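Aim 2, interim progress: modelling of the iron/sulfur cluster-bound target.
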Amino acid sequence: MSDLPKTELLFPAGNLEKLKYAFAYGADAVYAGVPMFSLRARENQFTWESLAEGVEYTRKLGKKIYFTANIYAHNMKLAPFMKAFEKMYALKPDAYIMSDPGLIGMVREQYPDAEIHLSVQANNTNWAQVKFWHEQVGITRVILSRELSLREIREIHEKVPQVEIEFFVHGAICMAYSGRCLLSNYLSNRDPNQGVCSHSCRWEYKVFHQENNTDDLYDETLQSGNYEPLKGEYFLTEEMHPDQYLPVDEDEYGTYIMNARDMCLLDCLQDLREAGVVSFKIEGRSKTINYLAGVGRAYRRTLDDLEAGRVPDLDAYSPDIFAISNRGYTPGFIRGNLAEKSIYYDKNDEYHEEDFVGIIREYDVNRGMARLEVKNRFDLGEHVKIVMPEGVLEYNIDTILSSKDDAPQPSAHGGAWDVWINIPHDPGPWAILRRKTRDVSKSKVD
Ligand code: SF4
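Predicted structure of the complex, ligand included:
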């Protein structure tokens, strides 16, 4: 057994259903957005009623739930926020994740016993900040900036050991300090600091040339049919760093110079535990059940091994990470300056080695059939994987019946389809189906 304190695995819960899957696939705690006042506001599907149900569900499991209320408020939002906080407080979550110092002050004044965790959005980058928030404001846990190295995290823990450290270990990252960026405001009038980022950094940007002696700018990539690939390789350099070459790749659609890869620290968990991190946080409240299952299986098994003093078998666990959508993985700043491959310059596509086929909604023991909510087309005879919290089973689908009238089907399609399929045994309530991806060009990022 490891003598380090038990580490929490903290999952995103975008709605009540995802909250339940997060716990089924290994979460010790979840974070959930409150209506209107959390980042990811557009994707937050909780209502006050479902949030209350989520708290009750969490309590029954003996796990924890944190409410995310981490916007930076403008004046007009102060009063509505405090009104909403009354409702949050009545639901009694384990803590509130907040970032705006003004809102934190108001909450502290009116609800002195409310436990507040300082959001990553507050850009917590040094021990003096952490000490300040703890001593002056009573913050008990800080979610450190993703932009820190392992050495910096360790130093913060050593200087302020009484404050719990939470750290993101997996998921999408910003090319700016987490969320503190105005790109999305400029390009789509959606403010990342109010929870409505349009992810403008991942869009395609075109390369323009300017001809001598003319003010006309022209876009030589405007007609993709006329596109001629640029010859040779192109790089940007910055005046003060003439030896540092930043590659710029372009295709017929444009270039993706700010498209950050996703963070994955599966192989750094022990280092992070030793540095003082007590909560490993997974990004992605807008992500699918397939994502929760894949990330959950990989991180839960790795952490269980570490806590039992075993060496995790990462070769066996990481396929779940590559099965789900990703933009290629980077360890971010954890080993110091950004690793070379932190931006995916070629495209803004997402990749996955396995397709999400569907979610098993019920099992009919008498017929040996499961009702499947179909997410992607599949055909009779296909080889699929049943993914469950406790394991993976592979088999061939040799019966597909319409859920309306039991009529045999040669295939099933995503969308509104529900079908019955044969399954060798009851896979339990949380099973999903995956298969090797059909589009191999989308299976791997270089
Ligand atoms: S536009 Fe990109 S960098 Fe800016 S906040 Fe949104 S995700 Fe982050």
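The radius of gyration is 24 Å. The chain has two domains: 8-177+262-330, 354-442.
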